[in-house]
Amino acid sequence: MARSDIRIVTIDNTHPDFYRLVGPLLARRDVYKSLGGVPWDDEGKRWTIAVATGPGSLDRAAGFIGLTTKGALESLWAEPARRDTLYPRLVAAAVQAADTGTLHTTVTHNRVPAYEQAGFTTVSTTQNYAKMSWEPSP
């Protein structure tokens, strides 16, 4: 699919399309393995979703990222073939949709470049993860 076949939406779990789009991915082992944990669908979390049009014009989530009520970006996931393009798009769209000040995240090292493209800086690292933060421009 071409880039134009993906649209980015931001919704929460009360939106009528949320579980139709993201629900099938929440309990998948490959998603869990990629994230290093469960993508919890907590109340108040806003999800930025890359929606792809599939066969028969059915929409499906090709990627997503969550923003908690405390300004944490988490659960950045995309289909393996789309990660290089969707990771930066999803992070940038989630930052744009955020209405909080400082944002923060803890991510696996392979996701760091997508966050850096959106202006995040690394605060600390461990063997498997990087803690990063983003400050709005003055």
Explain this structure:
The chain has 138 residues and is α+β, with helices and mostly antiparallel strands. 26% of the residues lie in helices and 34% in strands. It has five helices and seven strands. It has helices spanning 18-21, 23-26, 29-35, 83-97, 112-117, and strands at residues 6-12, 46-53, 59-67, 73-78, 103-108, 121-125, 129-134. Strands 1-2-3-4 form a four-stranded antiparallel sheet. Strands 5-7-6 form a three-stranded antiparallel sheet.
How is the secondary structure organized here?
Layout: E1 6-12, H1 18-21, H2 23-26, H3 29-35, E2 46-53, E3 59-67, E4 73-78, H4 83-97, E5 103-108, H5 112-117, E6 121-125, E7 129-134
Antiparallel strand pairs: 1-2, 2-3, 3-4, 5-7, 6-7
Instruction: Please state how the strands of the largest beta sheet are arranged side by side.
Output: 1-2-3-4
Please identify the structural class as seen in this structure.
Answer: alpha+beta
What is the percentage of strand-forming residues? Answer: 25-35%
Number of helices: 5
Order of helices and strands: EHHHEEEHEHEE
Question: What are the low-pLDDT stretches, counting only 5+ consecutive residues below 50?
Answer: none
Note the overall shape. globular
Percent range for helical residues?
25-40%
Give the rounded overall mean pLDDT: 92
Strand count, sense and barrel status of the largest sheet are: 4 strands, antiparallel
What Rg is obtained from the alpha carbons, in whole angstroms? 14 Å
Question: What separation lies between the terminal Cα atoms?
Answer: 38 Å
The total count of strands amounts to 7
